[in-house]
Amino acid sequence: MKSKYLITSDMDNTLLKTNKDISFKTRFELRRLVREGHHFSLNTGRPYQATLTQYHQLKLYNEPIIVNNGAAIVFLNKNNKIEKSITFPIKREFAINFLKKIKAYLKCAFASSLQTIYMYNREFIPFFIIHLHEDIRVLEGPLDETIDEDLLSIELNIKEEYIDEVNQILEQEEFKYAFSKIFWGKFNDVYSIQISSPESGKGKAMLYLADYYGIAHENTIAFGDNLNDNEMIEMAGIGVAMNNSREETKKIAKSITTYDFDHHGVAHFLKKHFKSIK
């Protein structure tokens, strides 16, 4: 019996073209591989509601979606309803305790659960990192006052003059190992930091699915282009950076695609790989 693979891919600037569609060539290749018994999962920082267009383009309705940078895995039906979900959350009480300590240092912030986005100083939040949908509840105000459930992730935008104070809080004993952190860097004099549960992550969620399907970890293939993809690219048996990736991502990848996201880079790589192992 041939070995089965789990294939997982970031969406933006990886699987999706500039127009945010999945090309017919890529859809065809992924469907072919799933018909042969392999598994595929979108693996994105987006909430699941912001994956629905591409989910329906793929028509792989029995395949899961890894969302919120690996803080949740959802299995949807054709009507966009969750049949099953696995989450790796930050507990509400713990999040509120942390947010109270850094409240004075925030320029803006938002947090996510499966069904809700919480926003503080919405007018300052970069538009491209918020994915709204009619099925997403939106609550605005100080996060420590509005959050009413466990969270999948928190995005902090820190005023430049306070970044040292926030880093010191993050290094305190109660928080140092309590969060998984992605430091996105500085934009317009504001530092962006994303925190989530240490049990979450695109790579950890990928390996969770590999175990779920009984697939050997060395038979995982992960595609990505940015810092939040580095974990899954490092953990995958075959970690692949797009040729349009950030240099930091290319450095840790085992392979780099020949073509970019606008020219079916994922499809070309998969077709070549599976042809080579027949």
Low-confidence runs of at least 5 consecutive residues: none
Domains counted in the coordinates: how many? 2
Counting DSSP H or I runs of 4 or more residues, the number of helices is 11
Q: Which percent band covers the strand fraction?
A: 25-35%
CATH fold naming of the largest domain: Rossmann fold
What structural category arises from helix and sheet content? alpha/beta
Helices and strands, in order, run as: EHHEHEEEHEEEHEHHEEHEHEHEH
- Output the strand order for the largest sheet: 5-4-3-2-1-12-13-14
Could you give the count of β-strands?
14
Largest sheet: 8 strands, mixed
Q: Given this structure, which CATH class of the largest domain is correct?
A: Alpha Beta
CATH architecture of the largest domain: 3-Layer(aba) Sandwich
Gyration radius, rounded: 19 Å
Average pLDDT number = 95
Portion of residues in helices? Answer: 25-40%
Distance between the termini: 12 Å
SSE layout:
Blueprint: E1 6-9, H1 11-15, H2 24-35, E2 39-43, H3 52-58, E3 65-67, E4 72-76, E5 82-87, H4 92-102, E6 106-112, E7 116-120, E8 137-140, H5 143-146, E9 153-159, H6 163-170, H7 173-176, E10 180-187, E11 190-196, H8 202-213, E12 220-224, H9 230-235, E13 238-241, H10 247-252, E14 255-256, H11 265-276
Parallel strand pairs: 1-2, 1-12, 2-3, 7-8, 12-13, 13-14
Antiparallel strand pairs: 3-4, 4-5, 6-7, 6-9, 9-11, 10-11
Helix pairs in contact: 2-11
